Amino acid sequence: MEYKLTYQTYNEALKKDKLLGLKCNNCGTITCPPKMTCQECTGTDLEVVELSGKGEIATFTTSFVASLGREGEAPYTIVLVELEEGAWLMGNLIDIDPSKVGMELIGRKVKLGHKVYPGDLYSAGEGVRPLFSFAD
Amino acid sequence: MRRVAIVGTGHTKFMFNSPKSGVELLAEASMDAINGSGLKPKDIQAIYCGNVLGDFSEGQGMIQSYLADDIGCFNVPASRFEGACASATMAIRDAYTWVASGFYDIVLVGGTEKATAMGTPLATRTFAMFSDGRYEYPSGITFPAVFAMLAHLYSKRYNIPLEKLKETLALVSVQSHEYGVKNPNAQFQKEITTEQVLRGFMVSSPLQLLDCCPFSDGAAALVVASEDVAKKLTDKPIYITGVGQASSGKLSAQYKYLPRLRAREVSVKQAYDMSGLKPEDIDVCELHDCFSIASLIAAESLGFAEFGKAGELWEKGETRIGGKIPINVSGGLKSKGHPIGATGASQAYEIVRQLRGELVDQGRQVEGAKVGLVDTLGGDGVIVSLILSAD
């Protein structure tokens, strides 16, 4: 069975600040990031849809210790965002001082942008990360 | 299915910068387990071992075959298990199923790791390989960051002010170090205070240095045998009476269920159902405390506390020896150390020794312990549960 929405296609869209997901024609759930099957009902009758890129912060952390080759990025804030369409998406939060953020972030409304992660020896090429900024 | 028992154990000291190779460490633990079972290497019919990052830390893959050759188990089928930090527990569960099925009578199982050889930047990179490499690593996810996000979510979901939660989490680390001092195999042999935990440098907010387990080198091994063989080898066989294993997807795919981990609830239910036991029947538990918050999340999923209430176990001393459910009285991953490919075997080793009553001299014996639980988490996607019983 062919993969409906691959990492490559998803990334190319994200580079244009377009967030793609999969809508399940069986139960209506939006799966994002994409998978072979619906996140809830495991259905495979899925349709590629463009999502709003809007949501609110479900949780966060500011990382002060980074992986090999990414030391210069620290400190940086990672967020899990609950999208308007229900799915959760991991990304970074910008337009803040990462070392000063706290619990007040949870529930803040955000909108999506992107930044290319160039990749390293182990990443099989580049990646694209969602960059969220406040929308409220 | 036949009954299956653990008949012998081995465990190296856990430490920074071991001068020994991963194979040497596991060979030492394995020979202690084999000799302690009254067996010879030629008696071993198969080897299952956990090793996660030998490829990166030593440029060594396929460690299982070199181990087999090293200890003189020539040409036996040997398999390596990779389930991040739960690798060795997966190996034990598979050893159990193969012996229970009657295919083998005697299997050597264990695990080894030399994580500290990588140094912190590469170790942090490789540990992050147990998050989703495509959709989540680009955002800079690290393993502390996963549990840091769960800590903030836990605080919000259960309406516990973060400052209060952090004080409770500090108690988890303090208790682990207190027992680690009594464990000669432990990496850290010093007590710490709540103030020290709360003064530590921030790794990934809200988790500070002493909320986090260390990178470690070490190995542990067990010999698993069928009941009839076990009874000939030892008068203290420790039976594997329940096993469970479950998997889950990337952190974002677990979304609205978080901070609970559904895979753990699925896995431990398998083990409880199989053994016919309940959480209140467990006398001693080794659970996966890779980070302080992980202990609370685990204790709740395992059925020792209501969701959002596990902190009270540590606050009231219920997790200490003499408490309702002694947890990680080995020092846990936090103080004993966490050589990831070995951790599950180390946890099982600890429970076996507790159930055999062998820890009196170390001053950390849970008196009369008959049933123990092992809980191991790998990345955000593997859980293995084992219930061990003295009879």
Summarize the structure.
The complex is a heterodimer of chains A (136) and B (391). Chain A is 6% helix and 40% strand.
Report what the structure shows.
The complex is a heterodimer of chains A (136) and B (391). By secondary structure, chain A is mainly beta. Chain A has one helix and eight strands, in the order αββββββββ. Chain A folds into two domains: 7-51, no CATH class; 54-134, OB fold (Dihydrolipoamide Acetyltransferase, E2P), CATH 2.40.50. In chain A, the strands form two sheets. A five-stranded mixed barrel of chain A has the order 4-5-6-8-7. Chain A has a three-stranded antiparallel beta sheet with strand order 2-1-3, with helices on one face. Chain A starts with 6 loop residues before the first helix and ends with a strand. The mean pLDDT of chain A is 97. By secondary structure, chain B is of the alpha/beta class. Chain B folds into two domains: 4-119 and 215-239, Peroxisomal Thiolase, Chain A, domain 1, CATH 3.40.47.10; 142-212 and 241-389, 3-Layer(aba) Sandwich (Peroxisomal Thiolase, Chain A, domain 1), CATH 3.40.47.10. Chain B is 37% helix and 18% strand. In chain B, a hairpin with a 2-residue loop joins β5 (202-204) and β6. Chains A and B meet through β4, β5, β6 and β8 of A and α5, α6 and β5 of B.
Please write out the topology:
The complex is a heterodimer of chains A (136) and B (391).
Chain A: H1 7-14, E1 19-24, E2 30-31, E3 46-51, E4 54-63, E5 76-83, E6 88-93, E7 109-117, E8 127-134
Parallel strand pairs in A: 6-8
Antiparallel strand pairs in A: 1-2, 1-3, 4-5, 4-7, 5-6, 7-8
Chain B: E1 4-11, H1 22-36, E2 46-50, H2 54-57, H3 63-70, E3 78-81, H4 87-100, E4 106-114, H5 119-127, H6 143-157, H7 162-180, H8 194-199, E5 202-204, E6 207-208, E7 217-226, H9 227-233, E8 238-247, H10 262-275, E9 284-286, H11 292-301, H12 311-315, H13 332-336, H14 343-356, E10 371-378, E11 382-389
Parallel strand pairs in B: 2-3, 2-4, 9-10
Antiparallel strand pairs in B: 1-7, 1-8, 4-7, 5-6, 8-11, 10-11
